[in-house]
Structures are given as C-alpha cells and as structure tokens.
Amino acid sequence: MSRIIAGAAGGTPLANVPGSLTRPTTDRVKEALFSRLDAFGVIAGARVLDLYAGSGALGVESGSRGAVTVDLVEFDAKASAVCQRNADLVNGLLGRKAVTVHRSKVESFLERAGDAASWDLVFMDPPYPLDEPALSAVLGKLADHLAPSAVVVVERSSRSPEPGWPAGVERFAEKKYGETRLWFAEPAVPDAIPPDIVIDGQEQSAP
C-alpha cells in the first residue's frame, strides 16, 4: 500500500487505483525523488501541478510537505475518484483545501488554463503508450505556464527514449531507478543578447 512519506500527513496510507490501469510510483522512487526536490528547495510554498495524476500520490505528498496549492489532473473516472479520496484525506489533515482534483484530459486542462496560470513544480507520469511526439506536444503547452524557477519531473520507463524537449523547456538532470527513469527539466533561458560594442567612440550592435 502506498503512503505519504513525510510532512504534516506523513505515514498516512493512500488509496490506490484498482487494476493495472495506472503505474504507481514506488515508495522507493518517491522517497528518492522528494529528497532531491527538497535539496532543490522547490516544495515549500510551491504551486504544484500533477499531470496524469493516477492516485495523486505525488501531488498529495507535495501538499503534505508544504506546497501552497496542488492541482491533480486525471481523466479516468476510477483514478479521478481515488485522487479525490486522497485529496480529501490530506486536506482534512492539513485543515485547509490545498489539493484540488480536475477530471480532465491533460491537453484540455492546459489549453483552458488562463494566461496567469503558473506552477512552480510539475509532475508528469504519462502512460507508457503515450508516444514521444504527443509527450513533447504536452510539454510545449506546459511551457507557457511555468514559473521562472520551475522544476518539471517526467517519469518514464527506463527503456523509453529521452523526451523531446520543446522550445521553452530544457533538461538539466536525469536519474534511473530500476525500471523507472526520472527526467528533470526547467524553463529554457533565452540566449543572452551580446553587449553593444564600442569602436572608436561609436556604439555598434554586436553581430
């Protein structure tokens, strides 16, 4: 049984999605992931988005550890219902509504998000059948909604190729845990504009 590892709701068992529809992140991988995110300093006070949320385990873990808001996005009816159970559990322990469940396709959710919608930490654990072009397209939609110092975590099979990073998103780390590989990405920094060059007292633009 999955559980919340640490924070205000640490040790609390979580509901799991029945059957083989989803691929839960193991507690071993989750513990290693959150240890790394703690080192990055991106959880406390963060706005978190959990796409393809499954049971919502990653999102509610973030809520337990101090995230201000958590959005769980899951389209499947059974998985969405489990997300709601886990969200209600954590919200009750926190004494506030930190976690919100959205039953929606990921693409539709991102398309509906207003221009002001922005997240500091994003989890993406898409189903294995989602191919690389489709994943890259979702990352492209997400790019416009990343805070300047945001971290994006993409969980894939260790046998899957590296995601195709669209303009606006770039990888900065990756880690393999058995059959799971985590890719860490951040907003791409535009190339620096070269300073103007002064020649014989006359300012000229750099080529």
Instruction: Briefly note the structural class of the backbone.
Output: alpha/beta
Shape: globular
E-strand count: 9
Largest beta sheet: what is the strand line-up? 3-2-1-4-5-7-6
What proportion of the residues form beta strands (DSSP E)? 25-35%
Give the secondary structure arrangement, pairings included.
Layout: H1 27-40, E1 47-51, H2 57-64, E2 69-74, H3 77-94, E3 99-103, H4 106-112, E4 119-124, H5 132-143, E5 146-157, E6 169-177, E7 180-187, E8 197-199, E9 202-204
Parallel strand pairs: 1-2, 1-4, 2-3, 4-5
Antiparallel strand pairs: 5-7, 6-7, 8-9
In short:
By secondary structure, this protein is α/β, with parallel strands linked by helices.
Description:
The chain is of the alpha/beta class. 29% of the residues lie in helices and 28% in strands. The chain is built from five helices and nine strands, in the order αβαβαβαβαβββββ. A seven-stranded mixed beta sheet has the order 3-2-1-4-5-7-6. A two-stranded antiparallel sheet has the order 8-9. A hairpin with a 2-residue loop joins β6 and β7. α2 packs parallel to α3. The longest helix has 18 residues. The radius of gyration is 19 Å and the shape is globular. 35% of the residues are buried.
